[in-house]
């Protein structure tokens, strides 16, 4: 099997899901499933005016690439694309894209979920909330459920696509 | 000399994005480094006090408390991550 395609981008620009999907599957006739996860900025019921995303340039790309390679190895994926936006984003803006391509759907679905769980806890990115009512901005607190989500990847044997 | 970088709430608390420091010989591991940094002044101590919520990266890779610094060129201190 050919080496998986790994594409990682971190920047302020928006992404095009259709174009990224085409890029990931171009030249392959053995991909039977592509899963795309898109995370968006929520308004939290109108309270949130914007999210400001800070990151550690260089380490963010390296860490996301490491996570993507681990997913590709574990589920024998044909390819993985992760695009994470940084800077100031407003409610409705897409923040992150995770694309996984595999022969069968189970591997692509599981791997996309694995990628998002690890991105949340291992990629050096921090979100600060800016509020619509002008109250002082606040760093987002990590959720205990995000750490708990990682445990299942240690307990469950991986599915093979 | 080693470059030290700060991010998010740690950066705001210390009031700097980064600085170069000379490490004492007794500072061998990531955990030693975190404790030593806390002793550099009240702003450092306040920004790094919640040690269990602070992460250390050595040369752009996550470090465990017992990770040796060896001849690290860049060390970063930051809070738990909230990307994705």
Features of this protein?
heterodimer, A: 161 residues, alpha+beta, 4-stranded mixed sheet, 8 strands, 34% helix, B: 84 residues, Ubiquitin-like (UB roll), 5-stranded mixed sheet, 3 helices, globular
Which CATH first-tier class of chain B would you pick?
Answer: Alpha Beta
Strand order of the largest sheet of chain B: 2-1-5-3-4
Largest beta-sheet details of chain A: 4 strands, mixed
Number of helices, where a helix is a run of at least 4 consecutive DSSP H or I residues of chain B: 3
Fold blueprint:
The complex is a heterodimer of chains A (161) and B (84).
Chain A: E1 5-11, H1 17-25, E2 33-40, E3 48-55, H2 59-74, E4 79-85, E5 87-89, E6 94-102, H3 105-122, E7 125-131, E8 138-139, H4 144-155
Parallel strand pairs in A: 1-4
Antiparallel strand pairs in A: 2-6, 3-5, 3-7, 4-6, 7-8
Chain B: E1 2-6, H1 8-14, E2 18-21, H2 30-38, H3 42-48, E3 54-58, E4 61-63, E5 74-79
């Amino acid at each position: 099997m050919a080496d998986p395609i790994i594409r990682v981008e971190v920047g302020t620009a928006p992404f095009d899901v259709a174009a990224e999907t085409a890029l990931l599957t171009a030249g392959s006739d053995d991909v039977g499933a592509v899963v795309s996860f898109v995370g968006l900025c929520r308004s939290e019921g109108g309270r949130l005016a914007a999210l400001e995303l800070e990151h550690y340039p260089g380490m963010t790309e390296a860490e996301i690439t490491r996570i993507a390679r681990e997913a590709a190895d574990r589920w024998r994926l044909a390819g993985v694309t992760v695009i994470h936006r940084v800077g100031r984003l407003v409610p409705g803006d897409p923040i992150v894209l995770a694309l996984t391509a595999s022969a069968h759907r189970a591997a692509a679905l599981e791997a996309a979920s694995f990628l998002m769980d690890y991105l949340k806890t291992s990629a050096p990115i921090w979100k600060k909330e800016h509020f619509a009512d002008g109250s002082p901005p606040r760093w987002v607190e990590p959720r205990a459920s995000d750490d708990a989500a990682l445990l299942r990847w240690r307990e469950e044997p991986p599915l093979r696509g | 000399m080693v470059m030290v970088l700060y991010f998010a709430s740690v950066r705001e608390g210390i009031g700097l994005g980064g600085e170069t420091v000379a490490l004492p010989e007794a500072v061998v591991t990531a955990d030693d480094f975190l404790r030593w940094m806390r002793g550099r002044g009240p702003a450092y101590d306040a920004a790094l006090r919640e040690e269990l919520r602070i992460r250390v990266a050595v040369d752009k890779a996550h470090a465990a408390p017992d990770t040796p610094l060896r001849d690290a060129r860049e060390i970063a201190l930051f809070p738990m991550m909230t990307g994705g």
